[in-house]
Structure formats: structure tokens, C-alpha cells
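BUG: 3D viewer hangs when loading the predicted structure for this chain

Environment: internal workstation, default settings.
Expected: structure renders.
Actual: progress bar stalls at 90%.

Input used:
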Amino acid sequence: MEALMLEPSLYTVKAVIILDNDGERLFAKYYDDTYPSVKEQRAFEKNIFSKTHRSDKRGGDTAGTPGHHGDMGTLWGHRDTMG
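C-alpha cells produced before the viewer hung:
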């Protein structure tokens, strides 16, 4: 029996990434090979941090970051509100 390969949908989670206030990785779990090497993952994380660390917003928010397969949504929050 062949495995069914589904195309990514709006509800696909490709990665879970938590960065500290300096952009350093606290946790990262990638669920596909969009960024297969640690070097590519770190570059992607640096890109996310550079787009989000200057935000004055409180709480969480989202930002689109272009990936190899369309836009990747990113959720971020400030340490003082993430509890």
C-alpha cells in the first residue's frame, strides 16, 4: 500500500521555533526538509528575528516570511507577556 502524500494546506505546521531576546535558539523542531541543514535553519531563524525583534507590539502577533514553499506564518511574543 502506497503512502498518501498530501499537499501542504493552511493548517500545515512546518516548524516550531522559540528564540530568546537576542535571537538565539532556545528550541527548534523542523517537521520537513525545507531547511535540511543546521546552517540553513539558523539562517532562517536569523531572518525571522531580524523581521520581528524591533516590534513594539505587546503579546503575540504574526508575520509572513517567505519560504521555499510559499509564505510561512510566524508567531512571536515578548518575554514579559508570555509568562
